Structure prediction request, 233 residues.
Amino acid sequence: MKDNLISVLAHDLRNPLGHFMQMTNFLVEDFSSFEREEILSHLIGINESSKNTYDLLENILNWQLTRKNSNHIILRSEDIKPQVDVIITQLNYLAIAKNIKIVNGMNEDSYAMVDKKLFHTIIRNLVVNSIKFSYSGGEIIISSQELTVNDINYLKVSITDKGIGMDENQIHEILGGNEIKINYGTEREKGTGLGLIICKEFIELLGGEFNIESTKGQGSTVYVMLKSEKNDN
Prediction:
């Protein structure tokens, strides 16, 4: 796992940094020959790439810090619908780039026992994943449902897309393993599955459960089960 992680980090950091170096060299060495629109286009590309690189590093840092300090996780009852609104706003630049609409269809007063920082990391990763594997012009819907299982009250958060979907083997690999594997989105966006591994671990730290339903070519629904109140068991 560590070897895979180092390999992924080395590759995913080297590519954008090489791109930054190349584009800034062009701009510095021959600045006067570029039109204003060309400069803006290059800067937009650098900006988007830097956001993706920052997100990767943020994931790794949060994961490592949480592993070292799991005893410091503080669960509080939070209304998570407004927090999902914040996450959608943060990711709107990615959705707009692919002409994808993200809908917060959660019920009002959707309370769950969460550590706010971990919850944001979980939902952010899952929505980014849905954007990556959705087609241009698609829609991602985030919804919620209250339910009771074995006398424990849960809030079930669902993230549904109509993207490329997965077969049973792919779902089994995600739910059952820790292997980092390279996958590509609908516009050749690179994914490693690392975000899903982090999500699984964080959901378990919150005392919740994670599941996926998907049909190849028809889209996926990811389910996050979170305890909606403090339980003794």
Notes: The two ends are 32 Å apart (CA to CA). Residues 36-68 form the longest helix (33 residues). The beta strands are 76-79, 101-104, 111-114, 139-149, 152-161, 183-184, 190-191, 209-215, 219-227.
